[in-house]
Design a protein that fits this description.
The complex is a heterodimer. In chain A, 41% of the residues lie in helices and 15% in strands. Chain A is of the alpha+beta class. In chain A, helix 4 runs antiparallel to helix 6, helix 7 packs parallel to helix 9 and helix 8 packs antiparallel against helix 9. Chain A starts with 6 loop residues before the first helix and ends in a 24-residue tail after the last helix. Helices cover 54% and strands 15% of the residues of chain B. Chain B is built from eleven helices and ten strands. A four-stranded mixed beta sheet of chain B has the order 1-4-5-8. The radius of gyration of chain B is 21 Å and the shape is globular. The two termini of chain B are 29 Å apart. The chains are: A alpha+beta, B alpha+beta. At the A-B interface, helix 8 and helix 11 of A face helix 7, strand 10, helix 8, helix 9 and helix 11 of B.
Chain lengths: 412, 372
């Protein structure tokens, strides 16, 4: 048992590090990597694209992709090593993750040869940014309940409806959209998957203001939007299978959210906050709570080491790889709440007057989103219960009936 | 990254598991619990025969010369079957203490016997209800004679040898005392987990020697506890994992309202949460095993993490096991209470979770002070 690279891994790490050192600025100790600002900023997009192209030219973009699409056919453990190394440097926020992490792999599995050749290389280079048009106001956890329609019209399809929670829609060239193409079929059977040009006439994008005041995502409205049939991925009415590929990759792509405060920041806060004239860290109750947070945070970190070990041995990680977000997101929220307890009345402040530039206030307001995005805590529990533990699936009243007959709540 | 047991260690796990499946079904644990016996002598002999007691004892002292990772594997398997034997106190506490702090003479004298199963040993620290922390024990050594009372002592009624925290003036150390001498009184106590025993030990000027030849001080005592905490954590993990497996199986086979109860989301989600806790605990335990087997400076922090995590998870597991079995889980006949009792026994044996949480933060503070 050790935490060391194999000789091959060490050589790969050294190569990655050497390139990064020659091409990027290392982060100072304690400096946070740039997060998504939560608003559309053309300058940020331009910088991110420049960095992505630089990586692509040197063979460091989407390294696990096959060489024919611009990757280097790297192993999963090499991908882990690369991201560990890249995380030590000042780089623009990764606005390509949805395309490269989720949609690209879907095209690789379900797309035609022509689609792969057309879309994957510019996706890898960051020349074309992608967004994922899955969720709808009435179809979130129940994604297959989507109602956006696609109707055949000659060589085209006409799309009408609304998508929601779409990250990066403003600066995306392409979107992957799941649509209802047969309302008379069962819920999962009448769905078709398309690639849609985000500049098409009939698309309207409206930012959503989140509870923390930021706008990381949008509503996207479709009014008679035309999509050519050659942009269809997979067979007509077989889109659910493709969507599952995307979702599977999403669980891997969305971690507990890197960036944001961690245990060591909480420990520092406990040391600096004054309680009855002494550091809060000297309070026995505070120490008990801190210990539990530490044990949980470390449990998560060491679990990721176990996942990396499987990758390093060329194995598929076990089900332990599915717990990251379910543990990490509530942990972030609970740590933020505790941090604000440590701050006393100062917890009420959300500007520079708050301790540590309102680091924990912002985490407190942002963390509820982590427990919802990319699978709610509740859906993740269902997934673990059913796929890992083999417990019976939920009883479904929408099974075996045409989608148009599935009960819905009152239409307001 | 190589944060897992090796193929050889996994093979050892399989062998240990199939051996214990035959030798230590839960009926054996129940038998000890329901009779006057304090432990299963037959299983103890079988375990000794396998050489497991000497797993981490070097060959020069008659052991098998493997390491703590192998010992951790065995600990987890013993935990799974709620083995009704004094393995933990004998091996994780006494043998390990001798290995890290004993004189050469003491190692020669005791380790071969411990590894052979010829001696049952324990560590006696508590002097009554509550937590003493670093208060000087009342038990004292004067001119090589031990006097005082320790209660409760795990396996105190069956142990042949005890390491006893004792004072000499203002100093504290561990006295090695043979319990088969005049001047030792044992008072068996009723155990919360009768598959594991507990007793009061009284010493009236009993000849004893200091572990290491002199009072070793709190640091060494803590270090000995840290080492044992990692290994006990694996026992706790094993018990929690087994409780989970039995319960998951039950929720698939038990029907109510015309459905397996495992199809109800209230139980599905709790089983998922329970699974998550097991995985986090396993990871914390592995880290502890790594630190222990490498004698890493991180051992204290790693041991606290493993201990807190495993104690909480075994408690959760044993509570959920009863709850998900319904009324049946509250019967004497059902095995759930064996897990419930063992979880509490192991939670108490090295000091409860709050003590370890406190130690964890103290260690983090010390680490930070050292690095700044």
């Amino acid at each position: 048992m050790d935490f060391n690279d194999t000789p091959e891994e060490a050589a790969f790490r050294a190569e990655a590090r050497a390139w990064l050192e020659a091409n990027a600025e290392p982060l100072a100790p304690g400096e946070q990597p740039a997060g998504l600002e939560g608003r559309f900023d053309p300058d940020m997009v331009r910088k991110a694209q420049e960095w992505q192209r630089k990586k692509a030219d040197a063979g460091w973009a989407c390294i696990t992709w096959p060489k024919e699409y611009g990757g280097r056919g790297a192993t999963p453990i090499q991908a882990v090593i690369w991201s560990q190394e890249e995380a030590r440097f000042k780089t623009p926020p990764n606005i390509f993750a949805i395309g490269q992490g989720m949609l690209g792999p879907t095209i690789m599995v379900h797309g035609t040869e022509e689609q792969k050749r057309r879309y994957l290389p510019p996706m890898l280079r960051g020349d074309e940014i992608w967004c994922q048009l899955f969720s709808e106001p009435a179809a979130g956890s129940d994604l297959a309940g989507l109602r956006t329609t696609a109707v055949r019209d000659g060589d085209d399809w006409i799309i009408n409806g609304q998508k929601i929670w779409t990250t990066g829609a403003q600066y995306s060239k392409w979107g992957m959209i799941v649509t209802r193409t047969d309302p008379n079929a069962e819920k999962h059977r009448g769905i078709t998957y398309f690639i849609v040009d985000m500049q098409s006439p009939g698309i309207e994008i409206r930012p959503i203001k989140q509870m923390n005041g930021m706008s990381s995502f949008n509503e996207v409205f479709f009014t008679d939007v035309r999509v050519p049939d050659k942009n269809r991925v997979g067979d007509v009415n077989d889109g659910w299978r493709c969507a599952l590929t995307t979702l599977m990759n999403e669980r891997h792509a969305i971690g507990a959210g890197s960036g944001g405060p961690e245990f060591r920041d909480l420990f520092r806060l406990a040391r600096t906050m004054s309680w009855n004239g002494k550091p809060a860290l000297q309070d026995a109750g505070v120490r008990q709570r801190l210990a539990d947070f530490y044990v949980r945070a470390k449990g998560l970190q060491y679990t990721s080491y176990r996942v990396q070990t499987a990758l390093s041995r060329g194995q598929t990680p076990g089900p332990e790889s599915s717990i990251g977000k379910l543990v990490g997101a509530p942990l972030r929220q609970n740590m933020a709440a505790f941090a604000l307890e440590l701050e006393g009345a100062a917890a009420m402040v959300l500007d520079r007057a708050a301790p540590e530039d309102a680091l924990w206030q912002l985490a407190y307001l942002g963390s509820p989103g982590l427990r919802l995005a990319g699978g709610t805590d509740e859906i993740l529990r269902n997934i673990i219960a059913e796929r890992v533990l083999g417990l019976p699936p939920e009883i479904r009243v929408d099974k075996g009936i045409p989608f148009k007959d599935v009960p819905t709540g009152p239409r307001l | 990254m190589n944060f897992d047991f090796s193929d050889d260690q996994k093979l050892l796990r399989e062998n240990v598991r199939s051996f214990l499946a035959k030798e230590a079904p839960l009926t054996l644990c129940r038998q000890v619990l329901e009779t006057d016996s304090s432990y299963s002598a037959s299983l103890w002999q079988a375990v000794a025969g396998q050489g497991w007691l000497g797993t981490a004892i070097p060959e020069s002292y008659g052991g098998a010369g493997f390491g703590r990772l192998e010992l951790a594997v065995i600990a987890e398997e013993l935990g799974r079957v709620l083995a009704p034997v004094p393995f933990g106190p004998t091996v994780y506490l006494a043998a390990e203490a001798l290995l890290v702090a004993g004189t050469e003479e003491q190692k020669q004298q005791y380790l071969p016997e411990l590894g052979r199963g010829g001696l049952i040993a324990t560590l006696a620290h508590s002097e009554g209800p509550g937590e003493s922390g670093e208060r000087l024990p009342k038990t004292s050594m004067r001119s090589g004679k031990l006097t005082g009372e320790k209660t409760p002592v795990a396996d105190g009624n069956i142990a042949d040898l005890a390491l006893v925290t004792a004072k000499s003036g203002r100093e504290v150390g561990l006295a090695i005392v043979d319990l088969r001498q005049p001047g030792v009184t044992r008072v068996p106590l009723q155990s919360l987990d009768p598959s594991r025993s507990v007793a009061t030990l009284r010493f009236e000027r009993v000849p004893a020697t200091w572990l290491g030849g002199q009072p070793c001080g709190w640091n060494t005592i803590h270090h000995i506890f840290d080492r044992a905490a990692v290994l006990f954590a694996f026992e706790q993990l094993g018990g929690a994992q087994r409780a989970f497996e039995i319960t998951r199986e039950y929720t698939l086979n038990r029907y109510a309202f015309g459905r397996p109860i495992g199809s109800f989301q209230a139980l599905k989600h709790r089983l998922a949460d329970w699974y998550v806790e097991l995985e986090l605990t396993r990871s914390n335990c592995y880290y502890g095993a790594w630190a222990l087997s490498n004698e890493a400076p991180e051992l204290a922090v790693a041991a606290c993490g493993a201990r807190v995590s495993a104690t909480n998870t075994f408690e959760l597991a044993s509570k959920e096991m009863i709850q998900m079995h319904g009324g049946m889980g509250f019967t004497w006949e059902h095995d759930a209470h064996l897990f419930y009792r063992r979880a509490r026994y192991l939670a108490a044996i090295l000091g409860p979770a709050p003590v370890w949480r406190e130690r964890l933060i103290a260690c983090l503070e010390a680490r930070e002070a050292a690095s700044s």
